[in-house]
Fold each of these.
Amino acid sequence: MYRYDDRDRAIINDRVAQFRGQTERYLAGELSEEQFLPLRLQNGLYIQRLAPMLRIAVPYGLLNSDQLRRLARVSRDYDKGYAHFTTRQNLQYNWPQLEDVPAILAELAEVEMHAVQTSGNCIRNTTSDPYAGIALDEIADPRPYCELIRQWSTFHPEFAFLPRKFKIAVSGSEQDRAAIRVHDIGVQIIKRGEAIGFQVLVGGGQGRTPVIAETIRDFLPEEDLLSYLEAIVRVYNQLGRRDNKYKARIKILVKALGPEEFGRRVEEEWQQIKDGVEKLTPEALQWAKSFFTAPDYKTFDDAASTAALQQQADSDKAFARWLERNTYPHRVPGYRAIKLSTKPTGVPPGDVTDRQLEAIADLADTFSFGEARATHDQNVVLADVEQGQLYELWQQARKHGFATPNIGTLTDMICCPGGDYCSLANAKSIPVAEAIQRRFDDVDYLYDLGDLNLNISGCMNACGHHHVGHIGILGVDKKGEEFYQIQLGGSASNEASLAKVLGPSFSRAEVPDVISKILDLYVEQRRAEEPFIDTYNRIGLQPFKERVYAKAS
Amino acid sequence: MPKPVKLGPQPGNPRELILNSEVCPNEWQLLPQQEEGENIEANALPSGKIILPLRQWQAHREALAERSAEVGVWLDSDEGAELIGREAANLPLIAINFPAFADGRGFTAGRMLRERFGFKGELRAVGGFMRDQLTYLQRCGFNAYAFEGDQSLTSLKESLHDFGDSYQSGVDQPLPMFRRRF
């Protein structure tokens, strides 16, 4: 993974000192609430319902074991001993004291971490594929480009006060696992012959007005990545709306101008700067790639190691289930990636305790070259595990509450913190997630249902990605009461689609029954091995609507 | 975006400002925008160093040719640097208004004036920008900061040095770090 040198360290330390000064000025009354707001936001600090919330950047989800241990210590010393993995591969603390934040940032800087631009109207943490570097369908590793984007966007002097927040995602594989079509900019790595380049999409997003991104460039040469991004953000900074925050995202500008015209303006700007200093040099590309080389893999006989694994699976059904759902193929024979589930029933999705963070660090050190990856579905990946060690790893993961074999199933929900924490929320989301997990806790049934994404947001800002869930649940406020709208058919994959609203909303107590009716219809209607989303796409919304809203006869 | 019919907040004329990292007396008088249709005649403009709103400068540019050393222009946040364009190279001063600190269009305008349109004169931030934006402003080519309000400029200017290095290119450090690491 990327490691800081003295220059990176100096910049982050300058930031810690700057924020310490800003916090002191605020506490001394020299900075007004209004003036402090953008400063604290650009350091990831929100004021939530009950306490401040501090969002720590985890660049494209990569963590090493030292960082995990430090995150654990901070949660113990400054918070209530737990933290929350977000859908942007970041980590949040829900209970820090405002006056402690400078000290927390100093502790994090010691392990090359920060909270820079995790909020505010600026370029946010770049996200990517949690299986980067190991996926079978990878065209090229996205992480060097993510790191180059991270550096380019960090304290970018021109783009710290954009019309609205700005999110970039990079996918390096054929299957999009980074949801690039619902980002302000989506970057898809492609190859023409041996030359690496990028397909560039703009104007995707969730929130109040969900939009699927449009391609404005089919092939951008590798060395032009940063200058082209600069051109896009420059056009947006000048032309994006600032009169209405709900119309300020780049997707609204792209819609207003049309993708062709928007792309034309970007191209015009880019022509002026493409051969300038932001053009990536061969040395810079080589240097960025040097941080993401393959670890010291052993050589295994794939057939023998797979056969041994099969034997273990045959003799232990629980292990077999975990193997099926929670592990992922690896490009190197004899290795697999595994996903630690943060979603056992009764725990808010994405929440981990300080001890669990330390357990992840230990597991990473023992089984996966000391590294772990936060995923956008709020779980944690260990990317490089020897097949022969999976059984041992599974037993240890189980001990720490990470081995719920539900990855990719109904109970592996994406869920925002909702009304329990967030001051924007219209409704709670965590209790809804728990009610669904309790209702559908029969593992055999979950397996039979197969791949199914259920996403829950507590308000239309869509932090829980409800627009792109196969089943999406949106908390709404109806005359002061919490209600839930159900949506069907969303997807953040290559065939990205936005979910459609089923009909009138339901009370919280009704939600599990509604989900149950939807699933019953799916099971009745599916053809052999057909996943939920395919059945939905084949039969459409209407049959689900009829089933859910049928009058009792 | 259509130009708002109503004029936005107009920048003021503080007595002192930060210029090239020093606290200096403000020698320029910034004139407010006029309502649509109203126009001051060129010969009715005040004497001395003046900063004209863009539209007035466009209207009087030729009439003021003899005063060119004492006539600057100010851009509002919805007026891009291209509206001055290459003319910038002949101007002694350009001011850019930040109607609110959250309106970041002026950062792009500053950079364009310096990097694309060859502006060498005084680039002045006016209006509602704030102390904590000083390093960003400096990196975008500003060298003068006309703070409004009663804050001590001597303590404000410390924030020009919040950061000792930067990742991407800017007016102050034209080379991105990836060209300086090796």
Note: The first helix of chain B runs from residue 54 to 60.
Amino acid sequence: MRLILCCCFITLKRGIRAVICAAACLFAVAAVLSAMFASRDFAPARLAVICHDDSGYIEPIVHSVIDSGFKGLLSVDFFDSADDTQNHTAVLTLPENFFESVMSGENVEPQLSVNVSSPIEGAWISALAKNAARLLSSAQHVISAVNRAMIADQIPFEQRQKLIFYTDIELLDNYLTRKGRFESIPLSATGSLSIAEYYAASAVSFVLFTLVFLLFSPIKELFGFAAFSKRRKRCFAAAFLSCFILSLLLTAVGVAVIGGRISAVISLEFFAAALLLCAMMLLFPAISGDSAGCAALSFGFCLIQAIFGGGILPQALLPAPLAKASEFMPLTLMRNLIADSAFGCGFDGALIAALWCVLPLLLCFAFWTRKGDNA
Amino acid sequence: MKSFFTLTLLFFKSRLLSRAFWAAAAVLLIMTAGFSLLCPQPSPSSAEVGLMYDGSNAELDALCRQLLTLEEVRFIRYIEEEQLRSDVISGRLHCGYKINNDRKTPITVFETEASFLTPALDELVFSCWFEADMLQNAPQLYKNGQYADLINGAISRSRLENKPFSVNISVNATASGGNYQSYTLLPIVYAVFIPLLLLCCCFCAMLSPDSERNAVDLISVSGGLIFAAQFFAHQLLFLLLSLTCEAVMATLILQNSFSVLARLLCAVILSFAGAGLFQLFRKIKANSAVLLLIIVWAVLSIVFSGAFVSPELFGGLAIFKYISPSWLLLRLMGAVTAL
């Protein structure tokens, strides 16, 4: 027992530098991801309206339309002339008696000048303007038709005007309350996780698995001591204990940097993730000849799994056979365990995770003790 | 001269017999092929939007057909909702709309976190439904349809006789360039491939056995000649590797927006850089610090390549783009392609 604890202590002391490097990498990853996925407030596009119409109806209608569906996307400023409109994305010029021409069907043409940085934005704004114009034309046809029906019904002029006004208001109200007519169904390739959470878990699991080579030297030296002292089983126990403690530390740091719950450290998934990492920490040094080989192996192994296992493209977007195969990859399991520990999204694959924890450990045990223990 | 070519051939053959080289080449080819296969094919940069509606409604059908022929936005008609959802999730569609017969919530929009154009697209789709609904229900606006025939007839005549409302639009675009360039994930493939190739060269050097180094030391020719021969041999080998990966990408990615010249130039530059790194890392002792440094450099090269996000989003950290070979070579390839 004393030998185990002593070896464990020495390995931990040798390995703490690796933990510090790995923790620094995890913080750097978290900072990069925060910058990439930070929500950005876009300034609304500015529309200048030069209104030569004196009816008094234009401004309230324009504000109502903007508030009904374009709030935050578009801001409107009214001007008397074009002098102060240079900094606006678009300038809408409404001629004299514009409102009256629309109501009478004369349809004097307004002018929309769009100043944008790319032809595509211009095309978008043009499409919306043409669409609005077509909609207004259809509304005019309807109002005109209703007016004819009222004339045929011999409704007096003043009553007709009132009814036309109410019809206008009803149509306008239907248009302005259009947002209530949408049912939004959010879809996601990353399941119950947001894209940021998914890639955070993916990055953490990639960093943790890749950096196992940092423990190559202390593990290999302990292995050498085990062979020399012929206390292989005890040294393996010490190696396992120290790797498990280090992996608990690193997994906790990994979950913490991506904003995981504090209660994550007492969850089964957390321990499973730590055990899986511990298994990799023992496996890679066992099958590598030197630290460069260990680094190449861990990095290449992780990169292939990242590409084919949903680390770079979300798992749901992979071809069906590959998506199925990726469920058996240790990096995918690690990602799912980290995500479940941090964000509570649920984990499905306990059996496969258990196999990936136990089998490498058994393999390493067989490797460490292949010449028998002479205690 | 004869010694130079003899040495070059020897070093070339020596590297071909190296397991580390073949392992690195295999991993690089697998990753290049896999990434190229999994990356979606290029699509037009204007958004593609899915649209489902009931074609039996004549008015709605006519209006939605106008949407389907829009140039500014590509609306694609879908029959199966499952396919529509799947294409939205996969990113093939920016978002999807389903127009149903429920007057209270007639429009269902399928969107993802990346569907930033939905406020504008909502307007286009809603207008179609609203217009169809308005025309269809116009007779109900007066005396519950008592004058339905008169109203419908009046609408038809009004469409023919009256001048429609229109807007005179002028667009002053300050940027030049193609309207609808292909949107492609090809830069991402190169952003990953470039540092990986260089990383493979580093690992090849660090994993070369000491016996090989000892054997080189025993060669009784000038150090400069040995260096030149080694450099040239490895440069040729990495050029072959790079060209093989380019061939794989060319086969799997149907539309490559970079010109052949740009890609060849990239392969040549990478081969020289790889050979240089090989020579450097043969001299360096492969300890944990060095290994960590090169792996971090490779990851930083990918992150700051500009293929995923603009490096300027990282504020002061954007300076790392200058140590990213991906960023440098992508710009070079773009410039050569544009010539």
Note: DSSP finds twelve helices and seven strands in chain B.
